[in-house]
Write a sequence for this structure.
């Protein structure tokens, strides 16, 4: 069976970085199926990489290898790792990008990529995506077990959120964690948490950046063009959007890290 | 034979939307060959999606499945559909994006995607690309016939142009319908129509935005660097370009919807 | 064995140009493995295309076909060519984009693509990427030998650098040749040349745009956030970067073509 290798990076596509990674993989594992997910992660923005990873993980078949290379610390002492969890294998630097896997409470196991024979013969100090992570993903696709790469890692680096979520009987105070391509603002408040707060989504109000939105809608076109609305987005999180417009532009750049409150009315 | 599935969306690649669609397809149809065409359609701009679809359709092998998800009405009552025409299968929302197929006068057949067993178990209200269209494309790739998805649709939504084209003995009045990556302005006037107007392309003048271009050239480098020229572009349509420069920038943003006149001189 | 075809173009992905090329290839060679390297080369910027090609070439398996279509002269008299070198096959216009292959001193052979039966039936004057180069790449993937396409070319067009590099006992005067996605400035000065200049990289100074950087570092994170540093980049060339920031923005747009001096201190 041809193994799927997905790619999430901040390398962009104006250079040959992604092309070199793909070449290394196909040189080692010619039958691997390469899937571009994103090369447009903002430079070094781990939280964005984690969010993208989280939003695709449940939809890939068992055995998929996810290569996540957002690596501002390349060449320093940060470890290269492989993580196995729920049928997926994750490859990348140990910098917290795999938080969606660590944080969901499932079992996971982690190993350092130390064994030189699974790396390129010459390893640069500035491009481990090509020299260490691409070969590791390719050898995993060939069926090499992750424990062959190196010793277990018991304490992978965790990613800490900007602000702690507060859940009470009357409401939830959370944060915007991501602005998507359309300017939709995605929060850390989940559909489950909202379900426990109120039976009817219409009897809720969502506030951020000094604006209040009445009710949680079902879909974008329920608001008039350009009007703000709140809804449960496709990743099961509370989202603030503007129909056929950008909520991020409507609310301004500070919305990117804004506090979001949802309360009963 | 591994079926080809092409992807045209307005999802961009800074998020996991496209990655989730690809994962769903590969989970159902592991042998499908995914081909990225464009994820850079402007938000909700159906005319652009249609133009991109039109420009690739003739070049794909029979049996290709084209997934076109530009879906501002997601979650509302607009229907999900499959269209079969000329050996190709098209999957997406019923919002007029498939106009190039409806408009070319060929036979086409259309069905609603209603059968739940060909959708994800949980269907969100905001991401049918992942939950309805990706599984439909994957099941088509497995050989499921489109009539298995639901009832026939006799009246798919049509896309209407901004302005009606006027063809006379002396000239043609048409419109710019697309500005491409290079700033070339592509019109709704075809090479055939121009051929019927005059035997020699040198005895024609093209006017738009208050500028007149003498003659219809053969290729870009026939004009000096930065100079406007008219030519028959690669999709068989009259195109206004600037050699090694952007005609859109040269003429300004109003050129995007400009009236274009071609007359005998 | 399924042949790999990589794609380097300046077509962007807002249109159907790249999609049409992929369709033509898959129509002729259904088993070819298409690999997107870059469609974001600046319009007509051959030097960038060459740099991207150079940075991926060593990492692809033997037999890989590289399609490089940056073609401002499309439709004029410039020749379409195939080049064979070191196990790789290159397809594109004869405009100097293949300089990395010509310049490395290896053997290479070159043929004109003249034979009509390996082109689309109708060849436009403005899109040879689709009508000539895509079919040529596909027929190569099917095993057609490059000499079947047309006569040998003895004098392919060479690309000349902006400025001649000066190497002396005390230092090297070179140029910035590329700014990458991160704003790192890559020069034409190689690690080998620096090795011959001084045994210790710490006893060197790098100057450009009126700034001087002491020492050549090992990796980005050795400098403080936002601070300029010099290092040997992943393609074996001297690079000027700013840790977690853009050296191009720090130094201004003139850095793109700047003279770079490295001297002993």
């Amino acid at each position: 069976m041809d193994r799927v290798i997905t790619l999430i990076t901040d390398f962009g596509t104006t250079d040959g970085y992604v092309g070199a990674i793909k070449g290394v993989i196909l040189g080692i594992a010619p039958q691997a199926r390469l899937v571009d997910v994103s090369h447009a992660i903002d430079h070094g923005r781990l939280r964005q990489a984690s969010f993208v990873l989280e939003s695709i993980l449940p939809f890939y078949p068992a055995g998929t290898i996810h290569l996540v290379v957002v690596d501002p610390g390349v060449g320093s002492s940060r470890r290269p790792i492989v993580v196995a969890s729920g049928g997926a294998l994750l490859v990348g630097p140990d910098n917290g990008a795999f938080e969606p896997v660590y944080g969901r409470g499932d079992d996971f196991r982690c190993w350092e990529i130390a064994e030189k024979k699974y790396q390129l013969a010459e390893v640069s100090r500035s491009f481990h995506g090509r020299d260490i992570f691409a070969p590791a993903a390719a050898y995993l696709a060939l069926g090499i077990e992750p424990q062959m790469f190196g010793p277990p890692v018991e304490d992978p680096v965790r990613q800490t959120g900007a602000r702690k979520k507060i859940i009470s009987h009357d409401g939830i105070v959370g944060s915007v964690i991501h602005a998507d391509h359309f300017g939709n603002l995605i929060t850390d408040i989940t559909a489950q948490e909202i379900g426990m707060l109120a039976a009817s989504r219409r009897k809720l109000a969502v506030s951020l950046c000094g604006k209040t939105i009445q009710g949680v809608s079902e879909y974008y076109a329920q608001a008039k063009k350009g009007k703000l609305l709140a809804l449960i987005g496709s990743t099961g999180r509370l989202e603030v959007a503007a129909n056929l417009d950008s909520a991020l532009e409507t609310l301004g750049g500070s919305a990117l890290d804004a506090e979001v409150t949802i309360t009963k009315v």
